[in-house]
Specification:
It is a single chain. It is built from one helix and seven strands, in the order E-E-E-H-E-E-E-E. The protein has 99 residues and is mostly beta strands. A hairpin with a 2-residue loop joins strand 5 and strand 6. The longest helix has 5 residues. It is globular and about 30 Å long.
């Protein structure tokens, strides 16, 4: 397991709401590869994202697996809280202190 980063990752949005406690998220159709591009991400790595960045509901998550536009995530990292996010919420790659 490696922490991977990207300088070319492209932000996307949630496709469907993400309830608190849910550990699988789906991003807008066809954007899954753009989110992790340039990172060399393979399943089992850790790729850090923010959902709803720069808002009161910002949540830091670790992506640990990907299948197309569907991601397995570990919620509430970096001191953030596991909260619900609306359909269309922004998802972007960020750098955060490991916890």
């Amino acid at each position: 397991m490696a922490r991977v980063y990207s300088s070319t990752s492209v932000s996307t949005t949630l496709q469907g709401a993400l309830g608190a406690g849910v550990t699988t998220m789906v991003v807008a159709s066809g954007t899954g590869s753009a989110l992790v591009q340039g990172s060399g991400f393979v399943n089992g790595d850790i790729f850090t994202i923010a959902i709803d960045p720069d808002t009161q509901t910002e949540e830091i998550c670790y992506v640990t697996a990907r299948s197309g536009d569907t991601f397995t995530i570990t919620r509430a990292r970096g001191g953030s809280s596991d909260v619900a996010h609306a359909n269309g919420a922004t998802v972007k790659h960020v750098l955060a202190s490991p916890d």
